[in-house]
Amino acid sequence: MNDTIDNKQDHAGQKPGRQNLLDLDREGLENFFADTLGEKRYRAHQVMKWIHHRHVTDFAEMTDLGKVLRGKLEAHAEVRVPQIQFEKPSTDGTHKWLLGMDNSNAIETVFIPDKGRGTLCVSSQVGCALNCQFCSTATQGFNRNLSTAEIIGQVWVAAKHLGNVPHKQRKLTNVVMMGMGEPLMNFDNVVRAMSVMRDDLGYGLANKRVTLSTAGMVPMIDKLGEVSDVSLAVSLHAPNDELRSELVPLNKKYPIEELMAACERYARRKKGESITFEYTLMKGVNDQPMHARQLARLMRQFDNALQMKDAAKVNLIPFNPFPGTRYERSSEADIRAFQKSLLDAHVLTMVRRTRGDDIDAACGQLKGQVADRTRRQAEHRKRLGLQAGVSEVDNVAPGRVA
Ligand code: SAH
């Protein structure tokens, strides 16, 4: 096996000389039609519908395109979707896919149906470099960013599967960028993929129904505000810098005050839209009454700054354990008390119900197959200005689902 050549092909997500059309949003596809194929731009629209609405990848099956155009597409383009390596339905309707991205890497995507809505949890990177202490993805280290095709390909796979499931509840209505990886560290590809999610010729999801979750990449939150209208979720997890720096090392670079200021700027741009603050509850770590009071204060400050009720929403996530973790889930009584304390302080607070935990598909449990991570992880952390990880593991852990 010639790894070098295979990796080159796979990493670029295309065969030499052929453009993977999944890598392009509407504008990119129109340009490709005009510039490379010498075709009218609107022809690109037909192809988008074939790919995203009808899940057709073979140009020969795109019957309303002329023969000449189909020939040109076959010569210059391809539609390359992620390969399903493994899939697993949960007893609660949740469905998880392990998708092969290349010879050595795989990522996970999870569909969660719930009363009239269906949410797909999408990954943005192979592994993650941020080393959040309570997240199982962190134990795998970081390998690489996913391409646009690999990100939108996850939606393609799920939508195709759901199209074949004759059940209303199974419709895909929401996407959350809450799978593996930090989406704001793969900015261009994530933004392009989200543009296809929202495009009527793509998956037609409203802005509000596409949510990007970040651990707090402050400059990129501002950049996102300039180019996109998606909903923003911020992984806070601690109400003070000391504790947050321990749980989310990125906090050393972008502390809470700067993070909250960036959230404020984002919310101001999207007048009337709230921001969700995620808070994973860990027994004895961040779930004490003192933490609830500090968090309530932070959230009220946010509402006051924006002069808007419920500008900040809190999403409490009971910690989902994974092998080797030193944390435990808070008790039900502590979770309720934490929520009540926030509600009493007039902070809109929900508890996220755990779904799919029988198939290790719950928040923070996602694991793919991440190869060749150690060197890249070190480089990545250096670029971020973070210290080397404290939870380095020696072996490449295969996905638990495999
Ligand atoms: N990097 C992005 C997106 C990935 S994590 C971010 O940090 O937001 C998505 C969410 O999963 C985070 O909000 C985090 O709260 C949650 N999460 C991670 N590990 C978890 C765990 N073990 N239990 C519960 N939630 C977890």
Describe the 3D structure:
By secondary structure, the chain is α/β, with parallel strands linked by helices. It has two domains: 19-78, DNA polymerase, domain 1; 83-395, Aldolase class I (TIM Barrel), CATH 3.20.20.70. 36% of the residues lie in helices and 17% in strands. The protein contains twelve helices and 14 strands. It has helices at 3-12, 26-36, 43-53, 67-76, 148-163, 187-198, 218-227, 241-247, 256-269, 289-306, 332-344, 374-384; strands spanning 19-20, 77-78, 83-89, 95-100, 106-114, 117-121, 125-127, 142-145, 174-177, 210-214, 231-235, 275-281, 312-318, 348-351. A ten-stranded mixed sheet has the order 3-4-5-6-9-10-11-12-13-14. Strands 1-2 form a two-stranded parallel sheet. The chain has a two-stranded antiparallel ribbon with strand order 7-8. Helix 5 (148-163) packs parallel to helix 6. The longest helix is centred in the C-terminal third of the chain and has 18 residues, at 289-306. The two termini are 22 Å apart. The relative contact order is 0.13. Mean pLDDT is 86; it is low at 1-13 and 387-402. S-adenosyl-L-homocysteine binds at residues 134-135, 178, 182, 213-215, 235, 278, 280, 317, 319-320, 363-364.
List the helices and strands and how they pair.
Layout (H helix, E strand, L loop, with lengths): L2 H10 L6 E2 L5 H11 L6 H11 L13 H10 E2 L4 E7 L5 E6 L5 E9 L2 E5 L3 E3 L14 E4 L2 H16 L10 E4 L9 H12 L11 E5 L3 H10 L3 E5 L5 H7 L8 H14 L5 E7 L7 H18 L5 E7 L13 H13 L3 E4 L22 H11 L18
Parallel strand pairs: 1-2, 6-9, 9-10, 10-11, 11-12, 12-13, 13-14
Antiparallel strand pairs: 3-4, 4-5, 5-6, 7-8
Helix pairs in contact: 2-3, 5-6, 7-9, 10-11
Bound molecules: S-adenosyl-L-homocysteine.
